[in-house]
Amino acid sequence: xxxxxxxxxxxxxxxxxxxxxxxxxxxxxxxxxxxxxxxxxxxxxxxxxxxxxxxxxxxxxxxxxxxxxxxxxxxxxxxxxxxxxxxxxxxxxxxxxxxxxxxxxxxxxxxxxxxxxxxxxxxxxxxxxxxxxxxxxxxxxxxxxxxxxxxxxxxxxxxxxxxxxxxxxxxxxxxxxxxxxxxxxxxxxxxxxxxxxxxxxxxxxxxxxxxxxxxxxxxxxxxxxxxxxxxxxxxxxxxxxxxxxxxxxxxxxxxxxxxxxxxxxxxxxxxxxxxxxxxxxxxxxxxxxxxxxxxxxxxxxxxxxxxxxxxxxxxxxxxxxxxxxxxxxxxxxxxxxxxxxxxxxxxxxxxxxxxxxxxxxxxxxxxxxxxxxxxxxxxxxxxxxxxxxxxxxxxxxxxxxxxxxxxxxxxxxxxxxxxxxxxxxxxxxxxxxxxxxxxxxxxxxxxxxxxxxxxxxxxxxxxxxxxxxxxxxxxxxxxxxxxxxxxxxxxxxxxxxxxxxxxxxxxxxxxxxxxxxxxxxxxxxxxxxxxxxxxxxxxxxxxxxxxxxxxxxxxxxxxxxxxxxxxxxxxxxxxxxxxxxxxxxxxxxxxxxxxxxxxxxxxxxxxxxxxxxxxxxxxxxxxxxxxxxxxxxxxxxxxxxxxxxxxxxxxxxxxxxxxxxxxxxxxxxxxxxxxxxxxxxxxxxxxxxxxxxxxxxxxxxxxxxxxxxxxx
Length: 712
Known about the structure:
By secondary structure, the protein is mainly α.
């Protein structure tokens, strides 16, 4: 106790300041003692004590040397840093002094800046006043010009009136521009109010011009001399009204009237004016421009898909055809090829997209109705329809593809770009439809689970859906605008595959429900005693495969393959349930004979149905039999090595269960087999189809323990 107190009283200041150092030192001493006690536990190891001491001394010297070097490096870095900080402080002080001097200089100049600001304001005001002085004579004469222009209009002097109006508009626009540049936007309202009379003059001029133009064609036939007084011509048919309900009739009327009026211009009007007027070209260009503007006005309305289709067809095909501007009566004098398109390519693309959006809405409305009608048919009290070969089917794939195909083909009369847009939309909606159809199948399966007797023809309608899915898959390539391109998009093929997988899954679940009561009795004493379980299993399989024959061959082969996989899986699963352990060599032989009989019977059944032996998972049952019937247990390691090489997904638990089933494997042999498996891990090849990885081995039963007692 005294020694401890003395140690506490004599604790160094370093230990009080750095308790972590003391703790680390104690841990190091403890670790060293633990290491030394382990190394020198045996007397013969004491001979190397000198070597250990010399090695540790050298290592300590090396560590101390490195520590000193590191500390020295850190100290040098700290010294350099302090020197840099000292220099930075001096520079900061110098900058502060210079900033202070600059501040006083700026304060001294502030008054002078205020004087300059006043001069700048006066200069700006002077410039504005100079501009106003320049236009004052014109401004004072505005109302006088307005009165003069009005008299010209009343006297039918339209050209002179037009010149006066243009001059006033130029003056107004110039003043507004100057105000905007000088930031006086608030004064613009006053200027516009001062020139408000221009609007009335423009309307009056336009009214008189439209009156002359509107009667020009009739004047040519009745009195050509009077027509010579007109300046120009434009259409009288392009008033902006809501025409979407009767757009087709409106476009037909435009087509008829424009052709008729251009005939009059070509045959009569040309004779009434000088040749250099080029009156036919002027009229053609005027109609073209007015029609382009009118079509843009129409496109601003919310047109339905049919109106958009008619407008695109009329603009891109009818307008330039022999039915309108290319009419034989107008050629060759009338030529609109140099006037540009009626609507720009950008507006054509925008209109095509609007059409696709409207069409998509129509498709989205049609699809659910078709799906609901199909879903209701699945619950009917009679079998689904069949084709001429007896395969189950419905009208669903034909209806869907015909609807999509008709919408794609009709757009070929417009542009290839529109057809491609509609094709892409059709594939997107078909993919979405397949997703909803799969959801309907899931619901169909749930309804059947609630009442296995309903629907009455559950399996036939699942088979019909598989044939429908196959039909859709074969029809999809026909939708492509390019007949040479027959590829199905990856995402759509994935949707078709998911649909097929779900229908197959529901069918196999139905098969499994009928097989499970038989499979649970496999590999049991009752089975070994001669029960005809496999005969019953073959009858169930044969019944379902007869139903499967109502689907077309690719899907039938798939169903047959999956059926065989299911049967093999259930048989192997039954072997892993540990329902019995062979008690003698004779019983083991009887077990192996029964395995051979069952596997052979099942294999021959699937071979007779068209499934080759090389494609069957039942070969795994034969391999298990070879493992069980091996007489010399010393060769089990070699036999298991071959087994795991052929079936790399088999686990230690599977092999251990099979060894238990033999009933004659010692702990040493079992240990040797499992150790061999650990030394030879197997990688799954890419093409390997898992067999055992889907089969779970039951957990071993825990020993029964009495309360407060030892385990038996």
